[in-house]
Amino acid sequence: MERLFESVSVIGLGYIGLPTAAVMASRGLKVIGVDINSRAVTAINSGRAHFFEPELDALVKKTVDEGLLRAVTQPEPAEAFIIAVPTPVGKDHAPDLSYVEAAATSIAPVLRRGNLIVLESTSPVGTTKMLSHKLARLRPDLTVACEGEEEHDILIAYCPERIIPGHMITELLENDRIIGGLSESSTALATKLYQTFVKGQLVPTSSQVAEMVKLTENAFRDVNIAFANEVSKLCDHFGIDAWEVVKLANHHPRVNILQPGPGVGGHCIAVDPWFIIHAATELTPLMQAARQVNDSKPRYVVERVLKMTRPVDTIACLGLAYKADTDDLRESPALRVVEDLAARHPGRILAVEPNPQSLPKGLEEKGVEAAALDAAVSSADIVLLLVDHRQFKALEPLHLEGKRIYDTRGIWPDYRAPRPDLKKTTLRAVS
Ligand code: SAJ
Q1: Which of 1.10.150.120, 3.40.50.360, 2.102.10.10, 3.40.50.720 is the CATH number of 235-430?
Q2: pTM above 0.85, yes or no
Q3: Ligand 1 centroid vs 298 CA: distance in angstroms?
Q4: How many angstroms separate the CA atoms of 349 and 85, rounded?
Q5: Ligand 1: distance of its center to the CA of 301 in Å?
Q6: Catalytic residues
């Protein structure tokens, strides 16, 4: 097959950029990863990922050893550039596009005629156009793709990342991708780039549709989880098992409710709906309600724990990460629960986080003690399950005997519905 891309540069080597860079390099492309974080760059060049993701370390090592992947702190010329930088929300939930703008500024001097730029970062509708206008200003000597015209020196597309932490490598290869070019030739060239490593379908559209698709996917998930969380509060109120209710409701062929939990974390589902809400507040009552329901769940959990706790009790909190089998603490509801408990419960609080990580800054100062699983469970009066890590799923029921249990993830069937001996203290729903 004709090789259109000798070298590809990935701007931003975080949770999305590094797996993407490593997968492309494993397909034989020469990949130059760029990140302003020199510690990440050093780690990658020595063959290590700077965060945990299954299979990633091995892929980084292999591609670095083969000379196909290397990391730098300053952009270099390449045939294509993939931008995978953070797009957080700032104050008042306004999108912060400063990293996208900084990426554009940093690559502008090395751009050459025929280059392709693909934005992957989750972005408000219109961001790809903004990127094009910015590059046109920075490089008046080049023509930059914009809607309605076809002949350009620089082609630009939006292709949202869709990979789920924990299965990133598989999903990078297998997921369908939406490719929204600012011109038809931009879409066509971006499709050729993704064909080099994606086995899934590559679906062409406009940049604005692609931007909205990504936001819609994550807002849908947020709303669905909020529904599950509301169902779980109702089930607590009625004293029944929420996970059994969800499971049995999902036997209906047209019902597919997600799982209740202690809240929604991570840097996507808890953040991305705000990009839509901020742009159209009047039009988004449902999405706003979902954010409110999910954001209020950690506080609800704390209130319930405090109702089942005496001041002298030791509470073992199992898990700090935002979800199972990751070490990622971003926006973690588990962390919020532990922090809030530390401020309100006078007894000992033990935190167990099996994924390699020391306690996050500030938690020890609040009196929380890091503990190993067995030791924490055996010395606890209350076991509070916050993350469904595989180590916790594997815990023998024997170890939990005689403990008061609050399982916020529904992984221990024996303890999901409130235990009869706790009914008096735990059955009241807290609003
Ligand atoms: N959660 C529940 N119940 C569920 C599913 C999730 O409480 O049934 C919680 C998790 O515990 C976690 C949060 O929601 O705290 C988010 O986890 P997640 O697994 O739903 O999603 P992320 O943030 O890890 O990844 C999402 C994915 N988007 C969708 O599934 C629509 C992923 O495909 C995206 O690439 C990613 O956001 C992103 O980067 O946008």
Answers
A1: 3.40.50.720
A2: yes
A3: 16
A4: 36
A5: 20
A6: 214, 268
Ligand 1: lining residues by beta carbon, under 6 Å? 122, 161-165, 217-218, 221, 225, 258-259, 261, 264-266, 268-269, 322-323
Structure tokens at 119: 């934005």
Q: How far is the centre of ligand 1, averaged over its atoms, from the C-alpha of 420 (Å)?
A: 33
C-alpha dist (Å) from residue 44 to 19, 61, 70, 108, 373: 11, 8, 7, 24, 31
Q: Yes or no: say if 380 and 400 are a contact pair by the CB < 8 Å rule.
A: no
pLDDT, one tens digit per residue, over 370-389 is 999 999 999 999 999 999 99
Residue nearest to atom 39 of ligand 1 (CA): 268
In terms of Cα–Cα distance, which of 385, 383, 296, 305 is closest to 343?
Answer: 305
Question: How far is residue 66 from each of residues 47, 128, 181, measured CA to CA in Å?
Answer: 10, 34, 32
User: Which residue ranges does the chain devote to CATH 3.40.50.720?
Assistant: 7-207, 235-430
C-alpha span between 431 and 429 (Å, rounded): 6
* Nearest CA-CA partner of 354 in 323, 389, 379: 389
Helices (H), 162-205: 168-174, 184-195
What confidence tier does 145 reach under pLDDT thresholds 50, 70, 90? Answer: confident
Evaluate whether the domain defined by 7-207 bears CATH number 3.60.20.10. Answer: no
pLDDT in tens, 114-128: 999 999 999 999 999
